Amino acid sequence: MALNIKSGSTSHSAYDLRDPNGEIIESHTLAVLVDNESGVLARVIGLFSGRGYNIESLTVAEVDHEGHRSRITVVTTGTAVVIEQIKAQLGRLVPVHAVHDLTVEGPSVQRELALLKVAGKGDARIEALRLAEIFRANVVDSTLESFVFEMTGTAEKIEAFADLMRPLGLREIARTGVAALARGM
Q1: Which one, of 118, 117, 134, 129, lies nearest residue 168 by Cα?
Q2: What are the beta bridge partners of residue 18?
Q3: 2-101 CATH fold
């Protein structure tokens, strides 16, 4: 078992939270402002894969139509030195205009959208609806044998909901990845 840094709870993981030198591995959310042109996302992803950096979550969308700019939000893990290397290397890419480490720059708001398909009958169906109400998940599709729930929240909240739905018949999950903004000015 490994300790989950974000929530302080224990979880099963194939990853140790320390690198071979004993340095702590942290999760960071990076916001990268780039030109909205073909090949930019491939270059950013290539930077990560070419150096063996892991991407836990990736979202990208145009944020400035007139300026032709997109925002890439990447959740990645590494030691403090590795995170600094990632930020420096991203900053050197030609189509990159800004790199912000939302984890260290101050408070931020992070949310994710998930769709969860739960199949079940009888008491399992009733329990799934009860838990969905507690977690403020919305039913967006229903058949006689399944529900599709829509949920927004932190990654930890979505994981907690999914963990409770597994024994009730969780069949499929689709997640958008983290969208994040710094709080305040």
Answers
A1: 118
A2: 24
A3: Alpha-Beta Plaits (3.30.70)
Q: Among 103, 160, 154, 97, which Cα is nearest to 134's?
A: 160
pLDDT digits (tens, 9 = 90+) for 145-159: 999 999 999 999 999
Q: What is the pLDDT of residues 11-21, one digit of tens each?
A: 334 445 777 77
* CATH superfamily placement of domain 108-182: ACT-like. Chain A, domain 2 (3.30.70.1150)
Q: Quick check: pTM over 0.85? A: no
Which whole-number Å values give the CA distances from 178 to 70, 84, 147, 155, 158, in the listed order?
A: 15, 20, 24, 7, 11
∠ CA 114-117-118, nearest 5°, is: 125
Cα–chain center distance at 68:
24
